[in-house]
Amino acid sequence: MKRILTVLIVLMLAVSGLVFATGDAEATDDGTIVIGHTANNVGIDSYQTTHDQVFRDTVAALEGVSAIQLDAGGDVALQINQVEDLIQKNVDVIVIWPVNGKAIVPAAKKAFDAGIPVLICNSLIDESGYQYVKGFAGPDTYEEGVNAAVGMIEALDGEGNVVELMGMPGYVTAIRRSEGFQDKIADDAPGIEILATEPTDWNREKATRVMENLLTKYQNIDGVYVADDNIGIGALNALKEAGRAGDIVMTSACMFGEGYDAMEEGFIYGSVYQSPAEDAKKAVEVAVKLANGEEVPFWNFFETPVVTKANMDQFERPNF
Amino acid sequence: MQLSVIKKKALGFAEKQGLVIAFLLLVIFFSIASDVFLTYGNIILVLRQVSILGIIACGMTFVIIGGNFDLSVGSLTSLTTVVVISLHDKIGPIPAMIVALLVGMLSGTLAGYLIGYLKLNSMIITLGLLGVIQAVTLIYTGGKYSRLTDPDETWFGFIGRGFVLGIPFPVIILAVVIIIFAVILMKTVFGRQLLAVGGNQVASKFSGIKETRIIMLTFIASGLVTGIGGIVLGSRIMAAQNYIGEGYEFQVITGVILGGTSLTGGEGNIFKSFLGILIVGMLMNGFILLGFPYYTQWVAQWVILVVVVWIDIASKRGKVLA
Amino acid sequence: MKKILRFFKKKPIWAILLLLVVIITILAPEFIRRRNLLNILLQSSVNGVMAVGMTYLMINGFFDLSVGTVMGFSAALAVGLQPLGIFPAVIIALLAGAGIGAVNGFLVARAKINAFVVTLGSFIGVRGLIYIYTKEDALIGERMVFSDFGSSSVLGIPTLFIIMLVIAVIAEFVLRKTPHGRNTYAVGGNYEAAENAGIRVNRTVMVNFILCSLAAAVGGVLLASRMNAATPGLGWPDQNLMIIATVVLGGTSLNGGYGSIVHTMGGVLTIGVIQNALNLLNVQSYYNMLLMGIILILVVFADSRFKQARNALRVTDS
Predict the structure, then answer these.
(1) Segment A27-54, tens digit of pLDDT
(2) C117 touches chain B (CB under 8 A)
(3) Cβ neighbours of C258 (radius 10 Å)
(4) The whole model's pTM is what?
(5) Domains (ranges, CATH) in chain A?
(6) Between chains, do C114 and B310 touch, taking CB under 8 Å as contact?
(7) Which chain B positions have a beta carbon within 8 Å of A234's beta carbon?
(8) CATH class of domain segment(s) C11-17+33-308
(9) Distances (CA, A) of A167 to A164, A174, A175, C137
């Protein structure tokens, strides 16, 4: 009896679901634009949090534009679900900050098939997904790595031993910053040897530990390349304790507020100015154009200028 | 006859000292493979790197002796780190530290109430708390980094970075916490009661009220040391990320289990927990020194965990398989 | 009517689910659209398959922390081995999962090591295997057929959900009607009594560990087919705990001996509905975490109250 009742109720739920379920066709075309956005992992660092906030503020300031802003929390599977939910919501444009550039491709294809334009922001989608997206808005992270290498070559005069602390393995930004740096060193400075490349997962405490261990392993480090200033400050803690801060050259691929201070004190030689506010504004700007059916170029980089002690007074201290 | 005596003795020795043997084997392996491993500088480094995990492990040992788990220590580390850093500039270092410790104990009290008094399953409850605490952390900071405005102007950094007589201060804190917890476990009524409660919860000769109180206290202790861990971590990096302690729970539990604390409760040794944590830390350090990819250490952890626990169990029952 | 009430009282998960559906529909009418409901089914299928395996193991009185990374490993193999052909790749991925389950099962059943230790070890160790195999990079499938399969549907219902449903139905049948199912309940209910009754306890435990890991591997293959890719981070760090929580939501006892696949499905759908609703309602992810944590605590609390009520009933009966 009990089992029959169980089955009955389950069936009832299922049937009522399908009976009451309304149809699909319900394009809400009242002239306003709805942007659907799924972010990578808001809250994991200030950059992403600021990006999320500026994105909200920018959208709020625009007349006739609203946004559904989701956060994948660093989970690729959840992000795919969110893209599906956004397609379901029938938004006018979907902006994706991919958790992973490769795994997001089929989801982008789904949006493409549903006729919703997709804009990739901040972190690139895999090349196999280019055909399904309208464009990319964000920083040129490869170029950032190259610029950090230029600074390193300059500071070491093309000779020396360098260690690299990269971000999260498998994450496009981390990979491209690493590739940009390594390619430039290989092309322009055969005298510089990269002794080790260690991941830090963008985690400051791990960066300190890894740097401590590297200082123990190698007595002859001349330079450290860090994928962003959060890692940089973590590494700097280890360098200061070992009495090597300022003597070991550090260059970074992304400047944070604390890195700005460290540069002032002479601990960081060169860095790259990448503003989350510019990043978010660019994404909204391009997304609105796409929603209006305008054609946009595929690449929409915003400026990421090189900062050194010489020109740092032209830049405001980053607020993150 | 003689052979079986030797075998028995060997098994008995392995039972008592299995962990120490595993530890020494690892030390020998790493010092042969890397010539910097056994230097004073590197030893100090490893000790300091494990100090935070070691401090948290003391509380975890109590919780596990009581027959429970605490999966919330990772996100609680994040929360207490964020609390101490964000309040440092507003109310001064000492009040900030007190608040962080209170937050830790409050969370422990909540867990202890749910698990000790309401007898709810510790694994699911602390898993739920893990999510709640992480969310509270994010809502509190609004997702931003917390950091000190002027890290060079405060003595607060001494806790995580200072040295006394060449020994890092976090290591001294760790030693003090270990000694206190070991004394509590071995020399006090509470310690004996805890071992008795964990060893046989149903037939424990203590009244139900005492038992619930003891379980609750283990969780408060866990919250307290996690607060200490958060303070040391905050001082070490002078900043706080919202997810900084993510995954600590698994490392700490791994270390405590390696130390031979029985998961069915009633058995445990603080010093051995520390040795277990040290093995985890040594793998981390040793694999970087050897230039192995960092992820191979996870496979090594798997093998070592299974082998050490297996040897421990096998020697107790005198048979490899049950 | 009374019977329905009693049913909901005994199995609160369905009442919770129904209540959620009503509330969410009022807050976000698009929730009840057919395509959205199908979306939820699709999104629940990976967790659903994994929860089926975990239900077996938990009825048996154990749990498995390694399912998350086993899922990730199997996904990586299913994508990375595609040059061998999709079929061989999937088979190898499933075998690898079953193999890890066999190791877990052997260590628990024969060596009598605590299941928490064993599966904590493989949870971490298998993560190492994923990174070694993928070399820390995401893998991408070369065959679009694989992902076409992942997003296909039969009669309008997502194929992946149908696969999950078939697995769930077979699993429920095996649990109710076969010796292995009865043994699983018996061993979980009272280990020693089961042993004394002549049940081959070790074999039962071993089989359930293998089934649990196999289900996780199936979940990995299904997930991989949705992305046609696999990332090294898949299943880390808390998928394992999420799956265990789902099964607990469905009313399976944490001490073994009690539970059913049908109600586990209730847990799976509830989690799926909540996550979908949070997306539709545009709730910030922080509150998502908060909500999940609170629900988990409440359900365990409710579960223990019901158990007490049951025990009280038993006392007055005797």
Answers:
(1) 455 678 999 999 998 877 778 888 999 9
(2) yes
(3) 15
(4) 0.86
(5) 33-139+276-304 (3.40.50.2300), 141-273 (3.40.50.2300)
(6) no
(7) 237
(8) mainly alpha
(9) 10, 5, 8, 13
